[in-house]
Design goal:
Blueprint: E1 7-12, H1 26-32, H2 35-41, E2 46-51, H3 69-88, E3 92-97, H4 103-117, E4 120-126, H5 147-151, H6 157-160, E5 174-179, H7 184-193, E6 196-199, H8 200-206, H9 208-215, E7 223-230, H10 252-265, E8 268-274, H11 285-297
Helix pairs in contact: 1-11, 2-11, 3-4, 8-9, 9-10, 10-11
């Protein structure tokens, strides 16, 4: 069992960046599914910090290519401060959303802390989507399709500057896994930025084990490993409770192997769980699956392994 630093759960109950309402209920669904108990069960002291607060969802149309930009800024600033506070106390923050625009705030805080401590940063972005849209490319204006672009410096000044440095991260710090839905304009931007994307075709061809070996290559004792898990990473047959399902995602065992290999590194230092939409779920099964995956991420295994096979 991998013993980690004390963990702090931070709820961000908003669907401000999404096109479909309901992700605002995600934090409570994860708690009902036993997230706090699951983290504690695998050797980690945990405290639930409750939920941060922010403006309500105005359900307004896009303005200059962005929907709800002022509200998204406010939520992400609050989340940045909450995550940074826990990191400064040498705790492992677990941000539970809420939609994926919130990763702007959480990862900006992680990157800021890494800069201060002189640590390397590796981000595993587990998602069906690349989330590298901009206001000029997005067909919807929904900011949950833009967090990676914003973190890499392509976005509104108020969002890209949240962590105090622009860009908050560089493309070489992120690995995207499970991607299978990319807008045409995004494809060009991803290529130009040089972000390493392990899409589902790649995973089909080489397998999840080899994919994770490549995604984790270079992670060592000086690396802060952040996992940003969008629940739509999973195939909708096993995880229907999301607003942007895309067929052909990882199976249960592929997802479990992914989490187990991250756990094997012993370097997990922060985590996002986002886009869970209980309004679209069946008897909370997607939340329960997410908690099951978190258990593996924190060290659950079938056997006591003495080595990595």
């Amino acid at each position: 069992m991998t013993v980690m630093r004390p963990a702090s759960i931070i709820g961000a109950p908003t669907d401000i960046g999404a096109g479909t309402r309901g992700a605002s209920m995600g934090p409570e669904a994860l708690r009902v599914a036993g997230l706090v108990e699951a983290v504690a069960r695998y050797g980690c002291s945990v405290r639930d910090c409750g939920d941060i607060s922010g403006p309500p969802n105005p359900c307004a149309a896009a303005v200059d290519g962005f929907r709800h930009l002022p509200q998204v800024i406010e939520w992400n600033r609050a989340l940045h401060d909450a995550v940074y506070t826990e990191l400064a106390q040498k705790r492992l923050p677990i941000m539970i959303g809420g939609d994926h625009c919130l990763a702007i705030g959480s990862i900006s805080a992680v990157a800021r802390r890494c800069r201060e401590r002189g640590r390397k940063l590796r981000i595993l972005w587990l998602d069906a989507h690349a989330d590298f849209n901009t206001s000029a490319l997005t067909p919807t204006g929904n900011l949950h399709g833009m967090p990676v672009a914003c973190l890499c410096g392509h976005g509104p000044r108020e969002l890209v500057e949240i962590g105090g440095a622009v860009p908050a991260i560089t493309p070489d710090q992120i690995r995207q896994i499970g991607v299978r839905s990319v807008d045409e304009g995004e494809k060009r931007l991803l290529q130009e930025a040089g972000i390493e994307v392990f899409d589902m075709r790649y995973i089909d061809e080489v397998g999840m084990r080899h994919t994770l070996e490549l995604a984790l290559a270079g992670v060592d004792d000086s690396t802060h490993l952040h996992v940003s898990l969008d629940v739509d990473f999973l195939d909708p047959d096993i995880a229907p409770g999301v607003g942007t399902t895309v067929r052909g995602g990882p199976t249960y065992r592929e997802a479990q192997l992914c989490m187990e290999m991250v756990a094997d590194t012993g370097r997990l230092a922060s985590l996002d769980i986002v886009e869970l939409n209980p309004a679209l779920d069946h008897r909370n099964q997607t939340a329960e699956l997410a908690v099951d995956l978190v258990e593996s991420l924190f060290g659950k295994s079938t056997l006591l392994r003495m080595y990595n096979p």
